[in-house]
C-alpha cells in the first residue's frame, strides 16, 4: 500500500431509521465525497464497514489515495471497524479523518482539528479506545445544543428541524470541501479556510 493513503470515516448509525438524525452527519458527508469520486459504497472484505476507494482530486491531477468508510455498527462501536481498516490499509492515526456531529459548535459551523478528547462523543471515544490514541483528524460539523431541557441523547438521535434541513446540504458540502482540503493541502490551510 502507498504511503499516502488517507482513511476518511463518516461516523453515524446504520439503517434507514437513523438516516436523517443529527448524529448521522458523518454518513451524509461521506455520501457527498463518494458522489464526487463517482463511486458507490460497497462492503469491505473485513465485513465491518462499507468503503469507497479513490482520489479526491480531478482526473489527471495527482493526489493521495483516499478510503471513505462507514462502519456497519452503531456509533459507540465504531472503533473496531476503524482499527481493522487502518490495519488493512496501513494507515497511521495522523492520516485518519473522523467526520462527526459536534454539540458545542453552532449548526452550520465547522471546526477542523488534529487530536483532542472525545467530549462525550461515543464514536470518538470508541475510536480513541481502539486506536490507542486520539491523534487523528476531526472534521466537526456543528449541530448546536438541544433547546430548553431536551435530553442530549434525544437531541442527537432526532431529525434536523425544517429550517436546518434547508441549510444542511450547504454544511455537508462545506464539510466535504474541508476533507478534500485537508488531504490535499494539509491541516493549517484547512483550518485557515474553514475554522472561521
From TrEMBL:
Compartments (UniProt record): Cytoplasm
Catalysed reaction, written as an equation: an N-acyl-L-alpha-aminoacyl-tRNA + H2O = an N-acyl-L-amino acid + a tRNA + H(+)
InterPro entries given in the database record: Pept_tRNA_hydro, Pept_tRNA_hydro_CS, Pept_tRNA_hydro_sf
GO molecular function: peptidyl-tRNA hydrolase activity; tRNA binding
EC number annotated for this UniProt entry: 3.1.1.29
Site annotation Stabilizes the basic form of H active site to accept a proton: residues: 101
Main location class: cytoplasm
Site description Discriminates between blocked and unblocked aminoacyl-tRNA, residues in chain: 13
GO terms, biological process: protein quality control for misfolded or incompletely synthesized proteins; rescue of stalled ribosome
Alphabetical UniProt keywords: Cytoplasm, Hydrolase, RNA-binding, tRNA-binding
Entries under SUPFAM superfamilies matching the protein: Peptidyl-tRNA hydrolase-like (SSF53178)
Catalytic residues of the enzyme: 23
Record-level GO cellular component terms: cytoplasm
Sites where the protein binds tRNA: 18, 74, 76, 122
UniProt-listed HAMAP family: Pept_tRNA_hydro_bact (MF_00083)
Quaternary context: Monomer.
Family: Belongs to the PTH family.
Protein function: Catalyzes the release of premature peptidyl moieties from peptidyl-tRNA molecules trapped in stalled 50S ribosomal subunits, and thus maintains levels of free tRNAs and 50S ribosomes.
Stated name of the protein: Peptidyl-tRNA hydrolase
Organism annotation: Nocardioides gansuensis
Amino acid at each position: 500500500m502507498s504511503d499516502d493513503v488517507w482513511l476518511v470515516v463518516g461516523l453515524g448509525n446504520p439503517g434507514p431509521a437513523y438516516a436523517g438524525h443529527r448524529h448521522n452527519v458523518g454518513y451524509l458527508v461521506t455520501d457527498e465525497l463518494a458522489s464526487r469520486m463517482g463511486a458507490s459504497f460497497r462492503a469491505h472484505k473485513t465485513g465491518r464497514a462499507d468503503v469507497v476507494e479513490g482520489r479526491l482530486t480531478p482526473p489527471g491531477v495527482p493526489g493521495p489515495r483516499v478510503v471513505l468508510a462507514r462502519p456497519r455498527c452503531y456509533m459507540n462501536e465504531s472503533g473496531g471497524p476503524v482499527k481493522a481498516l487502518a490495519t488493512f490499509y496501513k494507515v497511521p492515526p495522523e492520516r485518519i479523518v473522523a467526520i462527526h456531529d459536534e454539540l458545542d459548535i453552532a449548526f452550520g459551523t465547522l471546526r477542523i482539528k488534529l487530536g483532542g478528547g472525545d467530549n462525550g462523543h461515543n464514536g470518538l471515544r470508541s475510536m480513541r479506545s481502539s486506536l490507542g490514541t486520539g491523534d487523528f483528524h476531526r472534521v466537526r460539523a456543528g449541530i448546536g445544543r438541544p433547546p430548553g431541557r431536551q435530553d442530549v441523547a434525544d437531541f442527537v438521535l432526532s431529525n434536523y428541524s425544517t429550517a436546518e434541513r434547508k441549510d444542511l446540504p450547504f454544511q455537508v458540502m462545506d464539510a466535504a470541501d474541508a476533507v478534500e482540503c485537508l488531504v490535499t493541502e494539509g491541516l493549517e490551510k484547512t483550518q485557515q479556510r474553514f475554522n472561521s
